[in-house]
Each structure stands twice: as C-alpha cells, then as structure tokens.
Amino acid sequence: MRWTGPSRRSVATSRPSTRVLGYLESKKNLVGSACGLAGLALTVAGAAGAYWPVVIAGLYGAGALIAPPERASVPVFPGTAEQLGVVREDLARLREYAAEVELPPAAEGKLGGLLDLYGALLEPGWGTEALATEPDAVHALSRAIRLDVPECVDTYNRTRWWTRLTPGGESPERHLERQLSVLSEEAERLTAGLQDREARRQQTHTAYLEERGRS
C-alpha cells in the first residue's frame, strides 16, 4: 500500500482551521474580547438592559475595529559572518574534489595556489573581518568557489576525454591554465582591494590623530 501524502480534502479543511486559530490569537480578537467583557460587566451591573446582546456584540465589534493591524514578521537572513562560514565549508568540499581529480602539473600548481589564497581570505581573523564589510567581495569569492573553479576542472576533464577520441585542436590543458590564471588574478585584485581599504583606514586614523594633536 503506497501513501501518497495528505489528500486535497484534508489540506483544504486544515486551512480554514488554521485561519480560525490565527484569528483567535490575533490582536483584533483579543481587543474585541476585552471590550466584550466590558459589555458583559455592564450587563451584570444592569446598565445594558434588555439590549445586552447588542451591547456586548457592538463593543466586541468596536474593539476589533480599533485594534492595530497584525504586523508581519520581518524575515531574518543570515549575516555576512554566517555566509562566510558556509563559503568556508564549500571551500573544504572543493579541496576534497580537487584532490580526487587528475590535473597536469602546471594546472595543479595554479589550482593549489588559488585554493590556498581562498583559504587565507576565509581564515577567521582579520581577513574575514575585512570581507564582512564587503558584500561584493563575499559574492565574488563565493561564486569562484562554488561555480567557477568546479566548472574549470569539470570542463577540462570532459574536453580531455573527447580530445583523446579525436586528437587535434587547442589543448584542454592550455585552456585550464588560462582559466585558473584569470581566477588567480581576480583573487589577487580582491585581496589587494581589501588591503588598500585597510591601508586607507590606517591613513585616515593617522590624519585624525595629527589633526587632534594640532588642535
């Protein structure tokens, strides 16, 4: 016997019950109930007279109308520090993948140096503190680790397999080396940008201290 999940009828009937429970917990119902209780107190005190059901219902409705609307919860997204932790885990998986594939010596050296640079940037400390303030740098680093490097290695292996069947044409090894060189240059520019930002920060602080000393 195969279970195919909840039937459409059960899903349909669960939605109204969910809405009912949601309303019972809402501010409108709570304020309306408080006003209704006030009407009930008036009834007990004899102030509502024969129209006590109308008084209670009217006060409940008025309370529900004046109650502030429900405020939707603001979605919480992972912070930059959490994102860097995930990227660090992705780099560890990329290293495992790179260790399993067979690459030419020159490309293997370039890839090893590139992964080491990524690892240094993601090492907890000053590198990640600088990255945390640069969302574009985090995006570029994440894209390179998750997409660019795996694609370089995978397309190399695929192309090399076809080249063995039909020799000739441009060397897959050469393409791989060029791709890794481009990624290395990109990582070096990213690193240089972070270093330059820290240098400007130091210069700004020096200028501030000198200006404060003259005042």
TrEMBL record:
Q: Where is this region: Disordered?
A: 191-215
Q: What is the protein name for this chain?
A: Uncharacterized protein
Species of provenance:
Streptomyces katrae
The lineage is: Bacteria, Bacillati, Actinomycetota, Actinomycetes, Kitasatosporales
